[in-house]
Amino acid sequence: MRRTPARLLGRLAAAAVAATVTTGLLTPSPGTPAPESAVPVAASASTATVFYYTKTRNWSSYRLHYAPDGGSWTTVPGAAMEAACTDWVKLTVDLGSASGLAATFNNGSGLWDNNAGKNYALGTGAVTVKDGVVAHSDPCADTGAEPGEARTASVYYSTATVGWTTTNLHYRPAGGSWTTVPGVGMEPACTGWVKRTVDLGTAGSMQAAFNNGNGVWDNNNGADYTIPAGTTTVRDRKVTTGAADPCAAQTPDTQAPTAPAKVSASADGVSVVLTWEPATDDRGVTKYQVTRTGGTKGTVVSDVGSTVFSDTGLEARTTYGYTVRAVDAAGNVSAASAAATATTGEKPTAPAAGKPLGTDPRKDPIYFVLTARFNDGDTTNNRGGSQHTKSGNAANDDPMFRGDFKGLVDKLDYIKGLGMSAVWITPVVLNRSDYDYHGYHGYDFYEVDSRLESAGASYQDLIDAAHAKGMKIYQDVVYNHSSRWGAKGLFTPKTYGVRDAQWSWYHDERNDGFEYDGLTVETKSGKSYYNGDLWSTAEPSGNTCVNWGTPTQYTSPEGYRIYNCQWPSPTSGMFPKAYYHNCWIGNWEGEDSRSCWLHDDLADFDTESAPVQNYLIGAYDKYIDMGVDGFRVDTAVHIPRTTWNRRFLPAIQERVTQRFGTEAAKNFFVFGEVAAFVNDKWNRGSVNHSAQFFTWKERKEYSADDGKAALEMYDYEQQQGTGSQPTSANAFLDGNNYHVPDHSKFSGMNVIDMRMHMNFGDANNAYSNGKDSDDSYNDATYNVVYVDSHDYGPNKSSERYAGGTDAWAENMSLMWTFRGIPTLYYGSEIEFQAGKKIDCGPTCPLATTGRAYYGAHLAGDVKASEFGTVDSATGAVADTLAKPLVKHVQRLNQIRRAVPALQMGQYSTEGITGSMAYKRRYTDAASGTDSFALVTVSGGATYTGVPNGTYKDAVTGDTKVVTGGTLSVAAPGKGNLRVYVLDLGGRNAAPGKIGTAGAYLK
Questions:
Q1: How far is it, in rounded angstroms, from Cα 35 to Cα 33?
Q2: Going by C-beta distance under 8 Å and a sequence separation of 6 or more, which residues neighbour residue 430?
Q3: Helix and strand element counts for the chain (H, E)
Q4: Which of 290, 709, 745, 934 could be stapled to 702 by a disulfide with Cβ–Cβ 3.0 to 4.6 Å?
C-alpha cells in the first residue's frame, strides 16, 4: 500500500524536493517550491518519441501499436520501430492535438507486451518503457565524453537501500541550468548499482539529486549532492569522490537463470492456476515470463513477480498451454520450462466477482465477528462435531457451527447502525479438526467452508451485500499453519487407525465415494465429521512415520492403547520436510518460534518452501478476486519477515493491482497479528518478535534461498538491536502542520497494536504506551486498536473485558479519537459475556465463554441507511440498540466520520497539558481537505501555540475564539470528551455539535 506523493508542479531547485528527516526514507516534502515541468519538454508539443527496451524480450522485430488520446488505434500489429542504440528501439509518433497515447508492443508475429492487459499510458516527449516501467528520458543521449576525461563526472548510485526499479539523475553543472524534471535515466551498472556519465562542459562539478521517476526523491535531505569531475559513488547518502568503480570487480552478467521446473497447471471453471519451482541464478531472479498459448486470443506473455500465476476470464472448454522463463536483473532470460496444459470447464453461472471499495482504510472502524457464533440465518448448516456432547454444547442446543453468512447478511444493518463500516470475519476456508468453528484449522484453503454458506448466501453474496451498503469485508487469513490433517491439495497425512473394539467409534470405515466438506453427512458413519479417509491400518506407500502402527506405553483417557503414528506430530516423521516444519517451539522469543509447531492442531507450514508458497498464494488469490477489502493475518510473527517481504506481501499487491488497479492495491488493507504480550516497546528486547518490526522492508540483501535468508535476517537484526531499528515521523505533526508521510520503506503489512491492547485495563496506560512506540512503526495511524478479542483481554487476561461501563466508554472515546483504527469485538457494545473466560476449547460449553452465540440479542428487524443511525428496529435487537454503550459508540462514529483529522490525521502533544489530550490534523491538497482538531478525553486540557481562529466542539457545540494561540478546556468527565475543530470555512468549516447527548458524550 505504498502511497506515492503526487508529482510536484511549478519551478524546481533540486534542493526543494526534500527528503524526510528520518534515516533512509525518501519522499517529497510538502509546501516546497514546485518544478518548472513534470516531464521533459518535447521537441514538438504534438509528438512522442517512444523508446522500448529490447534485451529482456529479445524479439527479432518490434512494433508499436498505439492510439493517440481520443483517437483511433493503428492497424494491428502497428508501426515498425527502428534501432536507436544498444538494447533500445524507438519510434516518433505524431499525436496531433493529443497530450498522450495508449500503447502496446509486439513482435509482429503474435507475441505482445500490453502491460498485463492494461496497456501503457504514455505522454509526450522522450518516453522509455523498460520491463513494464515508464520513465521520461532519452536512453541514447550522447554523454559527450568517456569516463576519466577532464570534464566528465561518472556517478554510481546504489539502489540496494531505496529499492527503485528506475533511477533518474537530476543535475546542473556548476553555473549552469538544471535538467528538466525528472532528469536523465541512469543505466544498470551491476547488481545494486546504476550509473550515468555527464558532460560538465567547463564546470568542475555539479549539483545532483536522484529520483525514481514517480515523485520519490533522494536529494541529501534537501541539501543536494555535490558531485565533482571523475568517478563518484553515492550510497546511503554517503558520497565518495575519486572512488573506484564499484562494478569493476564484477564481470558482466551473461549467465541466464535455470529454466523453471515442476510447472503445473490446474483449471477451475474458466480460470487456471499455474505454479512452478523457483529458478536459480548466480545473481538472483527478478521476475518470470509466462507464455500462454491456446484459445482465440493467440499467444499472450505476462510478467509475474512470484511463482504463482492465476489466469482468469478464459474461454470455456478450451485447452491452454503454458511455459515459464526466468529473468535476472541483467535481462538474461532462461530457456523455457517444460510445457504444462490445462483444459477449462464451463463458465460458472455465479455472478461476477466483487470489487473492493478501495478507500482509505483509516476511515473505517472495524467490527470483529466470529462468523459461526454471531447470528444463525440458516439452521440447516449447523453442525456440532465430535465434541458436541463432551463440551456441553448439546445440553444448550448450541452447536459450535451455528452462525453463518446468511445470519451476517441479515444483520449488516445492525453493524452499520452502530457506525462500523468494516467487518473482520474469521477464516472462511474449509476447516477440519474436532473443534474448528473458529476457522483457524484450515484443511482446504481453496474452498469456502460449507457450514458457513447457504443458498443465496454464499461468501460472494456476503461480500457483495456488504459492498452494497458501503461496508468492507476483511478476511482473516492463515499462512503459518494448516489443520493437523494437513492441507488438501498440498499434503494430507495418513495415520494409523486400527478399527478394533476400542477404537472403531473413532476410526470411521472408509467410504471411497465420499469427500469431506464439513457439512454433508457420510451415510456409513452418520457423521459430517467423518474421518475414514484419514486413517489406514496398512502402512501407506511412501510412509515416513517412524514405527508405523506399533503399540506405545500410553493409553487414552478411556484406557485404550495408543499406537505410534495414530496422531499427527511434527517429530514422528509423519509430515515431510518439503512442506512442514518438524519440531516443537521451545523459545517463544527465539528463532524456533518462526520455524516450529505451536500446537498439534496447528501443523506448521515450511513457508520458505516454494510449493507451500505457491499453494497459499494461489489460494488467497481466489479471495482477492472475489473482492475482499483486506486481510487480517493470523500468527504473522511465526513467519520470517523476509518471507513476508519477498513472497506473500508482493503477491497480494501484484494480484490486487492486476485485478483492480493501483488505487485499490494501495488501499487493500493487510494487518498482521504479531502477538507480543509484554508491556515494553520491544518484545523482551527481540526486534524479530515485535509488532512494529513487520511494518518495514528489509534493509539488507540476504541469500537467494528463503530458508537461509530467514536465518541471516534474524541474526543480523538481533545483532543490530533495538537501538538501530528504523524510525518514522509519519504519525506525528510538524508543529501544527500535517506533512506528507513517507511510505517508501513500508513493507505492505500493518499490525494490530498489541501494546495498547495489553494496557487497556486503564485508558491512560494504553495512551501512554501507544505514544511511546509510535516512532518505531512505519505509520502508526494505520494501527488496528482493540481492547479485547477472541483470544485475550487487556494484560493477556483470559477473560472478556470487565472493567466497568464507565471504563469501557473511556476506552472507546480514546480509540475513536486517537491515531489508529478502532476495532470492536462482537458484543462488546453491550458488555457481552463480561468477565467470562474467553476460550476453554471443548472442556466447557461455548455459552459460558466469550465466544458465546450472540444472535439472541439480534432477534427482530433492524434497518439503517446511514452509518451510526438506525432507521427502525423491533424485538430484541431494539433493546440491544438502546444500551448506553451502543449509543456511545454510535455517536463516536458520527463524530469521527465528520472530522477527517480523527480518521487519517497525524497527532502531537506539543504545548499541551492534560492526561489524554492531543491535537490532530489531516491535509490533502488534491481534495482541498484541511481538518484540525483539539481533543481531550475525560480530563481537562490547555493547548498553547495553536492557530488562532474559531473552534467548535463536536460534542457540545461550544464555540471558542482563539486570538493568542491558547485554548483551555475544562474536564468533561470519565468517558466524555471534547473535540474542538478549527473552523476554516467552506468545505473545511467546523461541523459544530454532532449527534445527540447521551450517558457519556454530553
A1: 7
A2: 442, 443, 444, 445, 447, 448, 449, 450, 488, 517, 518
A3: 15, 54
A4: 709
Q: pLDDT tens-digit profile of 210-229? A: 998 877 888 887 888 999 88
Count how many residues are written for the chain. Answer: 1002
Integer distance in angstroms from the first to the last C-alpha of the chain?
38
Task: Return d(Cα 71, Cα 445) in angstroms, integer.
Answer: 46
CA-CA distance, 411 to 423, in Å (whole number)? 12
- CA torsion 411-415-416-420 (nearest 10°) is -160
Spell 142-161 as b/e; 16+ CB within 10 A means b.
eeebeeeeeebbbbbbbbeb
Q: What is the pLDDT of residue 247?
A: 85
Distances (CA, A) of 331 to 53, 249, 261, 322: 10, 20, 20, 21
Give the pLDDT of residue 349: 54
Check pLDDT > 60 for residue 27: no
Q: Diameter of the chain by CA atoms?
A: 98
CB 18 within 8 A of CB 25: no
Closest CA to 453 of 429, 484, 432: 429
- φ and ψ at 409, to 5 degrees? -60, -40
What are the C-alpha distances in Å from 849 to residues 434, 791, 836? 18, 11, 5
Q: What is the mean pLDDT of residues 345-349?
A: 74
In this predicted structure, the answer to whether residue 918 has a pLDDT above a threshold of 60 is yes
Cross-strand pairs, 423:
367, 473
Beta bridge partners of 632: 476, 671
Task: Say what the pTM is.
Answer: 0.74
> Helices 805-817 & 763-773, crossing angle to 10 degrees?
30
Report how far residue 757's alpha carbon sits from residue 680's, in angstroms, rounded to the nearest whole number: 12
Question: Which of 32, 30, 66 lies closest to 930 in space, CA to CA?
Answer: 30
> Looking at the DSSP assignment, which residues form a beta bridge with residue 837?
799
Where b means 16+ CB within 10 Å and e means fewer, 170-194 reads: bbbbeeeebbbbbbbbbebbbbbbb
Identify whether the C-beta of residue 903 lies closer than 8 Å to the C-beta of residue 881: no
Report pLDDT for 20.
27
pLDDT, tens digit, 9 for 90 and up, residues 523-563: 999 999 999 999 999 999 889 999 999 999 999 888 999 99
Q: Would the pLDDT of 145 be above 70?
A: no
**Before 77, cis peptide (omega within 30)?**
yes
Kindly state the helix (H) or strand (E) to which residue 933 belongs, with its residue range.
strand 929-937
List, for residues 762-794, the tens digit of each pLDDT value.
999 999 999 999 999 999 999 999 999 999 999
pLDDT digits (tens, 9 = 90+) for 568-595: 999 999 999 999 999 999 888 888 898 9
Residue indicated by cell numbers 468453528: 437
Distance CA 20, CA 746 (A): 14
